[in-house]
Model the fold of this input.
Amino acid sequence: MEMGAATSCIRAGLNTWGVDLNPAAQDTQQIEQRLAQHQLLMLDAPVSGVAAKAATGEMTVMASGSDAAFARLQPVLDAVAAKVYRVGREIGLGSTVKIIHQLLAGVHIAVGAEAMAMAVRAGIPLETVCDVVTNAAGNSWMFENRMRQVVDGDYSPKSAVDIFVKDLNLVAETAKLLRFPLPLALTSLNMFTGASNAGYGREDDSAVIKIFSGIALP
Done:
């Protein structure tokens, strides 16, 4: 729930609890402070899961907050998620876990695209490479899901290039606050940013492969 929506409910005299789905840890902490002024509880509860899982209530939630907030909002969590992970009491921890998750997701897509682009240059059929990798140790959920779209030449968005520009910028900002180096994440951010600047921002995130020149994609 955004702060504006919560404020409107307060003014209407409604008893409101907030669930924050924004992955920015600093934002969640600021929202919690403002909600606390009105004696409102809050969970920092980012989610992971495609639209189909959202529709069937099978998302994964990584949440942090007080025991009282978890108790009050358990019916909401049960309605939307198959798995709920309690990562701590401090607001911002849930968002940080989500940011770490997005670091991995973005890097997996970027390196999968790099591998598939190299296969094209080497003259190896992408269908073959995709089948080999998905049945071997180099596989990941993101590779199997997104590189299949590259094989099919289908870049209709499950997610989008611009979403990973946003998410990996959040990763970079978090790392800066922690004074922690992230060479792979920053390289991936540069790849997605390049794809966005080339006009592919609204295409599926697998379209990051289009930054590689001199290859013919399906």
In short: Residues 1-16 have pLDDT under 50 and may be disordered. The two ends are 42 Å apart (CA to CA).
